[in-house]
Specification:
The protein is α+β, with helices and mostly antiparallel strands. Helix content is about 40%, strand content about 25%.
């Protein structure tokens, strides 16, 4: 069994994309968690930002399990939510 690798994704819903390449921390969960906490503090006032820490065997697996951050579906889902909200007003 492969060791768990730690990755952080920083997704901006306003832009509809990751604002930087996924951050890879290898097996260093302490550094990953510290960086994750820093990013959460940085963006805590911005509801359009998703900061996601993922443990996986590889970035390729993360791209499958969290495909919405890589293939544009997260941005599309936000667009649909905005349409739904505007119709309920």
């Amino acid at each position: 069994m492969a060791a768990i690798q730690h990755f952080i994704l920083v997704f901006d819903h306003t832009k509809g994309r990751l604002i930087q390449d996924p951050l890879a921390f290898g097996e260093d969960s302490k550094s990953a968690l510290a960086h994750y906490s820093d990013l959460e503090r940085t963006y805590r006032e911005n509801p359009n930002m998703d900061i996601v820490m993922v443990g996986s065997d590889s970035i390729e697996t993360v791209k499958v399990t969290h495909a919405n951050y890589f293939d544009g579906t997260a941005a599309f889902a936000k667009y649909l939510r905005e349409i739904e909200l505007s119709r309920s007003v």
